[in-house]
Amino acid sequence: MKKTIQSIVLMVMISSSIVACTKSDTATVMPVTALTVKDIPADTVVGLSAQGIPITNGKYTFYSLERNTIVPNSDSASTKWDIAFMATRIITNGGTSGTGLGGAFVYTGLFDGLTTIPTDSIFKTDNAPTSYAITTGSGKGWYNYDGLTNLITPLAGRVLVIRTASGKYAKMEVLCYYKGGVTLAASASDADKLNKQRYYTFRFAYQPNGTKTF
Amino acid sequence: MKRRFIYLLLLTPSFVFAQVKMVNDTLQMQGDSVVVTANRSERKLSNVTVPVNIINSKQIQQTGSLRLTDILKEQPGLTMTSGFGAGVQLQGLNPDYTIILINGEPLVGRTAGVLDLNRIALGNIKKIEIVKGPSSSLYGSEAMAGVINIITDANTSIPLQASLRYGTYQTIDAGVNNAIATKSVFYQGFYNYFSTDGYSIRPNSSSRVTTPIQRYSINQQFKWNINDNTNIAFGVRLTDEKIKNDISVNNGGATITSNGNENNTDQNYNFSLNQRYSNSLKTSFRGYFTEYNAKQDLVTLSGDPYYDLLNHRFQRVENQTDWNANKNLNVLFGAGAVWEGVKSTRYDSEKVRKNNSIQYGFTQLEWSPNQKFIFIGGLRFDKNEAYASAFSPKLSALYKINTKHKIKLSIGEGFKAPDFRQIYLDFTNAAAGGYSVFGTAQAQEVINQLVQKGQIGALYDSYYKLKVLKPEYSTGIHLSWDYEPNTNNFFSVQFFRNDINNLIQVQQVGAYATGAQIFSYLNIGRAFTQGIEFEAKHKIDNHFIISGGYQYLETGDKDQIDQIKAGKVYTRDANGYSKILTLSDYVGLPNNSKHKAQFKINYYHSNGLFANLRVIYRSKWAVNNTNGNEVFDNGDEFAKGYFSIHTSVGKEYKSGFSTQVGCDNITNYVDAANLPNLPGRTFYATIKYQIFHK
Q: What are the percentages of helix, strand and coil residues in chain B, rounded to 5?
């Protein structure tokens, strides 16, 4: 039932986007602006156990792309959020993760170059713990992990194409995984590598009109 | 200890004004020395068709060099690397690709491809020959970037020599050389002890970058001239080093100390029988046995003890015949067999030795139609048991335009056999997510077993491409021009290009059901290095010689370059936004500096006084990929370029005494992360006594 509603919504949206396109010459599509969000914590380290093992709260940070704000954890079971972060994992509000229409895929290319989501794109939904719409793992989704330096770097040329909880579209690019928006140097102290990680800096563009064009 | 240091300072030459006549062999002009490495047979340097650098014992002494690393870092075209000991990078190729010989016999015992050159004490070395360019046609595997051959002293004119050096970080080096020579019997012995307390260049850290080391080396050489045409020789070289490696980790206020001990031993035995049949025909039979054993254990107060073992044994027999067919034609041919084996905790069982055997044959024709030309063609075939065979041709030529100008051109193939670890590694890292690396010999078998057990989640295309590894190949071209307008000046320029194929790279071949990665090795990489080298020497007067060298180097991974050209590689701009990487921002292979230069001033006086100042420069090099595109570009992390300045001054007395003081790294340049082998400023003083034959 949910699926059919989804596909109907999808069809409506696709057709509306076609309509939008044909009309676009007469300036109905407002260009969406890209926003940069800094230092969104993603289950940061809060201390060390007696054995020296880092402790975290094990909680996601929920974010609404529509309203460009963090959503409190109490609203995790709602459609108020679009994406959520915990360490290197990014989930979308759909599938096993949420009640919304959310989905995503990882696009290889430039953020600015992605002006229209290709029509043959396949949005995936979260199917925890087996798979996630935004592929997890080093070198597979949005980041690379260097085992020698213990550093996470966002892969260049990766755009996360997001379908929001309400079925609209956004694109985002993760810029940094460390507090302050600058990836630490390989020579940084272990304490810094531990405490300054899990802070997302990203830019995104949200298309409120439901089309796949940015 | 401090008092002893001051006492040694008082012995330095500035306080003494004795006039003694010294042998003037210290001028470091090229001269016409004899080279053995280039042709596997003695040749005058002026008749050698490939690029060669010679470092003589005087240079080694006067620069105050103790270990092979000390002297090589000051040579044009060479760069020292750190990580798994001090290795040498030759014309942009990693330490794996240069063979290190002692008197023509290879050293073994590489960790991750690096042979730690600190193992080699320089006290009894007569000269070091460095041949640049692929030389596998004569030396087989590893002679891809070039050959470094260390020739120990056969000089029996000094029956006894003893030296003692003391320096910063309680560094002690004590050596004794002794020699006995009769008409038919030669004996030479060398004993060396080296120890250092190590140093820590990281502030507030109790663990030391260079750890406390104690190292003993013994070298014994015998030679017996049975008659005018026959001699036999026997040599033994033993090195034993103990390294103490205590690691303290501060974890949330609690300090956890681990006690580590490392013991490395290196044994080399060689035997040769040399027979001359006539003035134009001679042959030699050589036997060689070497074993390198490296043992490490780390005991932590909490947690499991860690134990690591590597044992590499190498045995070789060889025959080489030199035939001077006529005055224009020299022919050399030889054949040999190698049995080698490695035991390691990193393989499926440390008890079982993994073996390889090699049979090889080589030949070389040297034709000089007249005084101006020399042409050399060489060929070698290596049949390997554990991996594919290799065929290495080489052509080189020398053209003496006149007495001042010389042109050399060489084109050759070099190869490097797969490492034992690439064939036999069986490693699963339980600590870091359970990933595994399997050598190619068992990768398919082990993975098949895992498939049957249902532990495999995915097999990649690369898994089906796994096969018997081929050696890595390189084709090298070297073109050089030497100009020697007079005995006071020397200038040379050299162009080089190496194209490397079949590079063995770690590749993910599958994944466990848990998602953990499985890796193995494939012959997939393609790379190149190319550049220009300049060298110049100028003798100002009877006292001063200045010399300099410069290398410009470009390197690259050809597959990455293809990807960049196709616009498929991304990088980040100043805002952190992705952009398409252009070729102009690509920097090539990591750990390579575009510019490297050295400048030296040497002073000599006939009264035995000598002094020198050496300046070494290395430009920035990429160390770490920080912008997540897996290629090295201008947006990545670089180690800063740096100058290091070294000096020493000394005096040799007629009585046989000599003294020397020196300071290395005068400006105290340190970079703990990228140059762990470079301590801050260090001082040393040496006293030496020699008995000369009258």
A: 10, 60, 30
Do B572 and B635 touch, CB atoms closer than 8 A? yes
Let me know if residue A7 belongs to a domain. Answer: no
Tokens of A80: 């108020």
CB contact residues (below 8 A), chain B span 119-178, against chain A: none
C-alpha B360/C-alpha B319 separation (Å) is 11
Positive or negative torsion for Cα B623, B625, B627, B633: positive
- Domain of A155 in residue numbering reads as 30-207
pLDDT computed for residue B376 by the predictor: 96
Distances (CA, A) of B145 to A49, B132, B151, B279: 50, 6, 20, 34
Helix ranges restricted to H, B540-599 = 558-565
Q: Would A163 be classed as within a structural domain?
A: yes
Q: What is the ipTM of this complex?
A: 0.78
- A181 CB neighbours in chain B (<8 A) are 576
CA distance B689 to chain A (A): 46
Q: Does the residue A76 lie in any domain?
A: yes
Q: Could you tell me the CATH number of the domain that includes residue B437?
A: 2.40.170.20
Tally the domains of chain B.
Answer: 1
The string of DSSP codes covering B95-122 is GGGEEEEETTEE----BTTB--GGG-B-
Taking chain B (694 residues) in consecutive chunks of 10 residues, what is each chunk's mean pLDDT?
A: 38 33 38 83 89 91 90 90 82 92 91 85 90 93 94 77 93 92 90 86 52 90 93 95 75 66 93 95 96 86 74 96 94 96 84 91 96 95 91 96 95 92 82 79 88 87 88 95 93 96 88 84 92 95 95 95 94 88 91 94 94 96 80 88 96 92 94 82 94 66
Q: Does A129 touch chain B (CB under 8 A)?
A: no
User: Does residue A180 belong to any structural domain of this protein?
Assistant: yes
